[in-house]
Backbone:
């Protein structure tokens, strides 16, 4: 009678995995993966629906949600974010009311020259083909814990009503300077990935009474001592991996804008990474 040896699920078989480190992943870079999108949750999001397989009992409207890992961060308490790279884009959309509209971007432009061919109608800029163009701020960020240890890398999209917030955040990161220890009276413009911000959400509304969740950000800490060198190094590595604006074209999603009161469908409650 042959004997079959079985192992308990909790058994650990020690062997040297370091010798295989990275094997099979050689051709996978940031452009070959679906980039995690950090979005603000709305009441209609499936993450908040008990009948949905994505339901998360700990999440609530106004919280932050990672579309890939499913991690949730309190919108009230906020999450700590290290901005590592920024890409501005101008996205061409089909109007949602258009028949057979897919809700996907038609084109992504990397400079604002596209506005040379648009005509303003209300709050939108329309192209001759009837589509409209919307400016987006794409922030590649590293989420850290309260001790500034890295947790995960994400994209945070700010557009529509939140595009001004994106500009404000860029102004804040660009303004951070420290004295140059090698040159008296000189200053060093601090890399964005040596800065930590606390992002929170708050309810906003327009004159029509329409409301939505918006971003609030404030500077939390500058990572300028040797204690945080490894954190800054990881931020620099993320920056180097995504320092290619065309990477956004490889991460298209079916989701549309979440920061505007104009949307009525669930598709319109999401963000699209570009």
Residues:
């Amino acid at each position: 009678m042959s004997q079959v040896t079985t192992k308990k699920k909790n058994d650990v078989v020690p062997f040297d995995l370091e010798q295989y480190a990275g094997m099979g992943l050689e051709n996978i870079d940031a452009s070959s993966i679906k980039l995690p999108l950090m979005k603000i949750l709305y009441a209609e999001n499936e993450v908040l629906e008990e009948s949905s397989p994505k339901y998360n009992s700990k999440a609530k409207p106004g919280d932050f949600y990672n579309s890939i890992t499913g991690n949730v961060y309190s919108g009230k308490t906020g999450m700590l974010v290290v901005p590592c790279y920024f890409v501005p884009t101008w996205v061409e959309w089909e109007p949602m009311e258009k028949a057979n509209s897919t809700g996907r971007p038609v084109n992504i432009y990397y400079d604002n020259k596209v506005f040379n061919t648009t005509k303003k109608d209300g709050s939108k800029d329309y192209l001759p083909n009837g589509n409209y163009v919307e400016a987006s701020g794409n922030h590649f960020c590293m989420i850290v814990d309260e001790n500034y240890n890295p947790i995960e890398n994400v994209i945070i999209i700010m557009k529509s009503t939140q595009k001004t917030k994106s500009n404000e955040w860029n102004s804040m990161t660009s303004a951070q300077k420290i004295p140059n220890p090698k040159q008296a009276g000189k200053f060093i413009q601090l890399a964005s990935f040596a800065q930590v911000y606390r992002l929170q959400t708050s309810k906003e509304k327009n004159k029509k009474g329409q409301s939505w969740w918006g971003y609030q950000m404030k500077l939390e800490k500058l990572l300028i001592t040797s204690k945080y060198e490894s954190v800054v190094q990881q931020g620099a590595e993320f920056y180097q991996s995504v320092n290619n604006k065309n990477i956004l074209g490889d991460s298209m999603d079916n989701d549309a804008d979440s920061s505007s009161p104009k949307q009525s469908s669930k598709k319109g409650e999401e963000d699209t990474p570009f």
About this structure: The chain is about 10% helix and 30% strand.
